[in-house]
Each structure stands twice: as C-alpha cells, then as structure tokens.
Amino acid sequence: MKLTSFLSGIGIPEEMEKLCREYSGDSTLILDLRNNTGGNIQLANTMRSYFLREKILIGYSSFTTGTGQLSKMRERWAEPHPSSRWKGKLIVLVNAMTYSASEDFLWGLQWLDHVQILGTTTGGGSGRPRELPLGSHLDLRLSTCITYDRHKRPIEFFGIEPDGGIPDHLEQKLSQMHR
C-alpha cells in the first residue's frame, strides 16, 4: 500500500478496516510512506492505532511556552483502535521526505516486535509548525513542539532511524508494482 499523504476524505480508515477484516495474522502489510510529507495528524494517529496491540508509551513532547522556553516533557500514550486491528506484521518504507504527520504515524511504532521500518532516516519535521507571514509572499514556519521517542531522543531535526535499508529484492518488486 502506497500512501503519499494523510489526507482526510480519501477513505484511508475505511481501507484499513477492510484490510483488517480480510487478512489473517500471518499476513504482512508493506506500507510505503516514502515521499509522504504529512497531512492530517488525527488521521495519522488513527492509522497508527490499527497497528498497536496494547496501550503504549509512544514518547514525549514539549511545547513552546511563548517565552522562548520549552515546557517540561510530557508522556504521550497511544491505544489500539477500538474495533479493528492489523493482526499481521507491518513493514513501513521511509526516506528523508517522510516527515510531519508521517512521523507522527511512526511515533511509537519503532521497536514493536511486529513492525519493521526500512529505508533511510526520516526528515525530522513533525513539530506542529506555526506560520508567521513576513510579507511579500514569504512565510516563516516554526516548530511549536518537540517530540521525543521512548528513549527521549528528539524526532525534530534528527528524524526516525529505520531498522535497516530496503533489500534489493523488495525494491525491485516495488518498482515493478509502481510501473
């Protein structure tokens, strides 16, 4: 499944519900998020919930306080979807153009036994940007939040490191499918 953005209204939750119903626990879903620059964060969080098997600590976050400081880190938890869950394995393909809501989707899936993230380090830009107009058709985008993984490593700027590269045989198979 290739997902180029987390856009509302294009049937992503419905497609996930269908996949969860139709495939057994011995299935592997390959989700291609390469070049997915984000979209709707709530949709990304809902999508993540299909792949959780229990309530987990996904990481931490700190928000800007308006005084040039960051708030204290707060724990962030996520729960499985209330009615549907993917029972098999998940392989997620990522690259440096995978960021924003895509990183929110990945946030907390790293290190789960049934999830493997392959590719290159993500873009490191999930920071809930605030846009400030500078005039002359210029805008400045500033992160208002720093997200951290479960080991308290920041995702902003550093990205999410994959478990490994994409094997050649998988890359060849994917390129044939995308023709």
Automatic annotation (TrEMBL):
Gene3D superfamilies: 2-enoyl-CoA Hydratase, Chain A, domain 1 (3.90.226.10). It holds the Pfam family Peptidase_S41. Residues 2-167 form the Tail specific protease domain. Transmembrane segments: none annotated. SMART domains: TSPc. One of its GO terms (molecular function) is endopeptidase activity. One of its GO terms (biological process) is proteolysis. This is Tail specific protease domain-containing protein. It comes from Rothia amarae.
